[in-house]
Amino acid sequence: MISTIPVFHVISQFIFIIVASLLLIFEFFLLFATISHRNDTKFPVAYLIVMTICGIVCKIAFITDFTTYLFFPEDIYTEYRQFIGKEITLVGTLSYFVPMCVSVLMTLNRLFIVIKPTDQAIFSQKRIFVYSFGILIFCLTLLLIPYFSDCSVNFLASSLEFQTDCAPDKHPVTRFTNANAICIPTTLLLVNLVIIIHLKAVRHSTYTKLFQKTSAVGSKRTSQLARCQKRREHALMRQTLAITVYLSFYEVGSFLMRTFPIFYQNLPESIRSAYFYFRLETICAITFFVYFMESPSIRKTLLGRSDPKKNSGEQHGNPKISTITLRI
What we know:
Structural class: mainly alpha
Order of helices and strands: HHHHEEHHHHHHHHH
CATH topology: Rhopdopsin 7-helix transmembrane proteins
Distance between the termini: 42 Å
Number of strands: 2
Largest sheet: 2 strands, antiparallel
Shape: globular
Helix content: over 70%
CATH superfamily: Rhodopsin 7-helix transmembrane proteins
C-alpha cells in the first residue's frame, strides 16, 4: 500500500514509527527501572508506573495504526478499522486522557505539600494507585458512552483524523471533551505558577516584609527543611513547566484549529500534516522529556551514575522531610 500513499506521509509515518518505537523501548526500560528502584526516594513510583503504562499503551496503539496503514493493502486496512479500529482508538485515547487527569492529581499533591510539607499520608504510594484507578474508571466510562452509541470514534491514518460513525456530527460527550480538554493543562499551569510564586515569596520572606509579621512556621523552620523547600521549589518549576507544556501541545493545536478553521484549511496539506505528527509525537514523548530530560536525579539513576552512599543516606535519613512526591 506504500506505493499509493503520498511520499510525504510515507516518510512522516516512517519517522513517527521509528521515534515512537525508540520511545517505547525507553518506556519499558523506565518501567523496569522504576520497579527495580521502588525503594529509592528519587523515584515517584506510583506516578511513574501509571505514566509509563499509559505511554506504552498509547505508543503501541498509534504504531499499530500507522504500521497497518503503511504495510498492508487498502482492503485489509479497511477490514482492520472495521474489526478493531474503534477499540484501538478507544485504548489510545484512554492512554492520553488518564495522564491528563493524573496531572490534576499531581497538582493537588503539590498543593498539599505546600500546605502540609511534612504530612503526606493522603498521597502515599498506595493511595496514589487507588486515585489513579479511580481516574481510569472515570475516563473509561467517559469514552465508552460514545463507543456504544451510533457516534463511535475511529482513527483514520490516511487523513490523520478521528472520524465518527455519525460524521460530520459527534456524540455530545465527544464534543464536550474535545472543546474542554484544553482547560485542564491551562488551568493547571496557572495553579502551579501560583504555587511557585508562593514558594518563592515564602523563601524570600516576602510576606513578612509586606505585612511586618513573623511567621510561626518560618521561625521554627530548620536549615534542613529550608534546603528541602528550595529543592522542592526548583523541582516544581521544572516539572510544572514540562508537564503542562507537553500536555498543552495537542490541545492547543485542537483549539486553534477549531477557532481558526478557515485559516487552518488554507494552509498547505504538508504543513497541516506535519503539525499533526508533531502534536502526536509530543504525546508519545511526554514521559521521556518529563522524567528523563527534566529530572536529573532519575536520569542519573537510569544512566547508572547515582551515588550509592547518597542514596543510602536519603533512604535512612529523616523520613518526614522527603521530596519524593515533588518529582512528578
